[in-house]
Amino acid sequence: MSAWIEMISDEDADADLRAALDLARTPHGTVDNVMRVHSLRPNTMRGHVVLYRAALHDAANTLPTWLQETISSYVSLLNDCGYSLANHWKNARHLIGDDARADAIWAALEARAPERVFAGAELALMRYAEKLTLEPGRMVAADVQALKAAGLDDGAILEANQIVGYFNYVNRCLNGLGVSTAGDIVGYYAENEAE
């Protein structure tokens, strides 16, 4: 466990915190630092878990999972959040399933040039994610109209908006409290398939 504030271990948790920790457990039975950093305030941990799962892991989402993870990674890259980037790019890379394609996507995102690898709706989503992350006060109706013109419906636009909003929230929480991946298992998709 690593952060600039205290994080309470499972062994030292009271009943209320234990219940929040149980809600936040990964498929491996662990609690990642991104959630454990809330251990002094279990209610924010519960809220964070629910928000995360609703934004990124809801069965009703229609955006492909690899694209959700790539949007998450791009926002985290723009925010210089190593924690989220390590986890979500590992997931995106695995879900892309093609190392050459993943390398090309990574290089384009790192250069802030998504047009090198994306077109249509995917490119529109990356541009939307970048502007909403870096210039939220400059968003205009035309930004959403561009997504619609690229073929996205309002539900998919809402999904993208929530993913971008969530990662801007969590990146600031993690960076602001010095949370690291020390002790975490980074990424889950590849590991879960082996189980």
UniProtKB/TrEMBL annotation:
Record Gene3D superfamilies: AhpD-like
Protein name: Carboxymuconolactone decarboxylase family protein
